[in-house]
Design brief:
94 residues, mainly beta, eight-stranded mixed sheet, 9% helix, globular
Length: 94
C-alpha cells in the first residue's frame, strides 16, 4: 500500500519485506544521514547536509510502524536508469 504526503517533500511510503521504504521524487534526499520520527506530532524529518528538512506527517497505522522501526530504506529514481536504494537509521523522538 502506498501513502502520499501532501506537505513537505513529495514522497511515497511502502513496506518492502518488513522494512519501511520512503521513495523521494528528489534523489538528493536518498543521501540523508538519518530520518527522525517525532511521535508528538507524527512528523518525519530528514537529516541532510547538516540540516533538518521536513518530509511530512504520517497518520494511523503508518505512524505506529514508524514508531517501531529502527531503519528505513530511502529510494529515488536514478536520472539515467533504474533506482537508488540506500538504508539509513530511523530515530524515534518521544
Amino acid at each position: 500500500m502506498f501513502h502520499h504526503i501532501t506537505e513537505g517533500v513529495p514522497v511515497q511510503f511502502s513496506l518492502d519485506q518488513g522494512l519501511v521504504r520512503i521513495t523521494f521524487s528528489d534523489p538528493a534526499y536518498v543521501r540523508s544521514d538519518a530520518i527522525i520520527f517525532n511521535r508528538a506530532d507524527c512528523s518525519l524529518h530528514a537529516v541532510l547536509n547538516e540540516g533538518l528538512h521536513l518530509i511530512g506527517r504520517v497518520e494511523g497505522e503508518l505512524s505506529k510502524t514508524f514508531a517501531a522501526t529502527s531503519e528505513v530504506v530511502l529510494a529515488a529514481p536514478h536520472y539515467y536508469s533504474g533506482a537508488i536504494d540506500l538504508r539509513t537509521p530511523l530515530i524515534v523522538k518521544n
